[in-house]
């Protein structure tokens, strides 16, 4: 009897992903950047963007379930954030130089310094590289040593002995528990 190796039913050829349709690309751009003729550049909902781009809303919803379309959406959003954040340093410098509020000026200086440090070389502690990092974390805080009471005090205190009267039994007391 001859044992043949198991083979996969599918093809071993790598399949290229289907390209994203130009209308869907346009709808994604409208969802991120808004219309070009809009002075506010207000982003559109996917239904409005699909209608303007010429895609049916139900088809657009299915396209948004695809990983390649979602990756395109995330790339466009990242590029949009980079574009709008490009002027942050100038805005902070303007606040630092022209603002009458001293606290705002101090915060602008701090923010500029943090941005400058973030662009510098990576810190050796946060650099990712080969090796193992061991963090030792104490699960419980250290307990204080127990308080000890010496059986033989160094001095004695004389106090008068006071006897208290026995409490009177209450009438609703259960007879089982009477003393």
Characterise the protein shown here.
The protein has helices spanning 22-33, 46-53, 57-64, 67-85, 88-98, 102-118. The protein has 179 residues and is an all-alpha fold. Among the domains are: 22-85, no CATH class; 88-118, no CATH class. The relative contact order is 0.06.
State mean pLDDT (0 to 100 scale). Answer: 77
Relative helix content? 40-55%
Number of helices, counting only DSSP H or I runs of 4 residues or more: 6
Question: What is the H-and-E element order?
Answer: HHHHHH
Beta fraction: under 5%
What's the total count of β strands?
A: 0
Name its key features:
mainly alpha; 6 helices; 179 residues; single chain
Q: How would you sum up this structure in a few lines?
A:
The protein is mostly helical and 179 residues long. Helices cover 42% and strands 0% of the residues.
């Amino acid at each position: 009897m001859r044992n043949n190796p198991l083979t996969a039913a599918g093809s071993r050829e790598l399949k290229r992903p289907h390209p994203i349709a130009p209308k869907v690309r346009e709808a994604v751009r409208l969802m991120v950047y808004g219309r070009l003729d809009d002075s506010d550049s207000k982003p559109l909902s996917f239904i409005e963007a699909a209608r303007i781009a010429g895609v049916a809303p139900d088809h657009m919803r299915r396209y948004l379930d695809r990983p390649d379309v979602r990756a395109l959406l995330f790339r466009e959003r990242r590029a949009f954030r980079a574009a709008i954040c490009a002027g942050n340093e100038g805005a902070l410098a303007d606040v630092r130089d022209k603002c009458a509020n001293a606290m705002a000026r101090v915060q602008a200086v701090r923010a500029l310094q943090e941005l400058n440090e973030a662009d510098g070389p990576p810190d050796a502690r946060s650099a990712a590289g080969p090796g193992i990092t061991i963090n030792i974390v104490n699960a419980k805080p250290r307990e204080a040593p127990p308080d000890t009471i010496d059986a033989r005090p160094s001095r004695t205190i004389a106090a008068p002995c006071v006897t208290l009267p026995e409490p009177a039994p209450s009438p609703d007391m259960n007879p089982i528990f009477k003393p």
